[in-house]
Structure formats: C-alpha cells, structure tokens
Amino acid sequence: MRIAVCPGSFDPVTFGHTDIIRRASKLFDKVIVLVSVNAAKSPAFTTVERVQLIHKVVNDLKLDNVVVDIWDGLLADYVKQVNACAIIKGLRAVSDFEYEFQMALANKILYDEAETVFLTTSGENMYLSSSVVKQIASFGGDISHFVPECILKDITERLVRTNTNKTEV
What CATH number has the domain spanning 3-159? Predict the structure, then answer.
C-alpha cells in the first residue's frame, strides 16, 4: 500500500487544502492528513477542532482513502512510523518553494525512504491561505468562496468578531 502524509496546520482548512488533499487521494492508496502542532503559531482552532473540521470535509467529499491524524514532533518520525512513502506539500507560489525545498531536503536526511511530492495549487487558489480566511472572517467578510460549505458555519462562528473600531462621522 502506498501511503502519503499531507501535513499542515489547517487553521482553518480551505479550498486550497481540499484541492491538494483530493488530488493526492487519486495518486496514493491512503492519504493521512496530518494536523501538525506548531509552537510558533497561535491557532484560532485547537488541534482537535481542526481534525473535526477536516473530518467533515473529507466525509463531504467522500474521500474514503483519506484519514486524519495529529502529530506533535518531527514529520520524518511520523512518516517513518506509518510507513509512508511520500510527503505531500502544496505550493501556491515560487515563494513557497524555497522554504518547502529546505524542509524536503531535511526530511530526506532524517528519513531517506520517503519522497516529498510537490503539488501546485490550482489557479483559483493561488492567493488563498488560512491567514487570509481568518482576516476576512474577523471583519465579518464573506468567506464562502474560500472554505467548504460543510464547515462554513463552524469557521464563521469562531472567527467573526464585532468590529469595535467604528468611527462616527
């Protein structure tokens, strides 16, 4: 069985993420969407909440060969533990490549048995990131063009805030 790991923070999961996950699911027998713990980030959703959101999306898309897991450690260790042959990374722009290339080289040294596979995003998702979604939602903007409908309410309820910086004229 050819297993791939698709790691990320997924805070929250977007159409960009789901595009990469869906496409990876066609290339591998099993894809593990791995919610990674990143101490350098302050997530809007807990790791458990992110897993729940991804589960909803995977079920909605009927991706039967996709599972979701959490990991707080080196990616290479996880990939080795689950006997995966590939790490899937989505690239939006050339600027993503430099960092991801460095990580791919480091992971190859840590676990030589896995290859990093880069999937370029589809054109309509090139600008899309979880940060963009969080910023738009925090001001009450419409994020329905950026996240799957099955999790839209969950994300909106968490991220929409009352704008207290209104200026009267």
Answer: 3.40.50.620
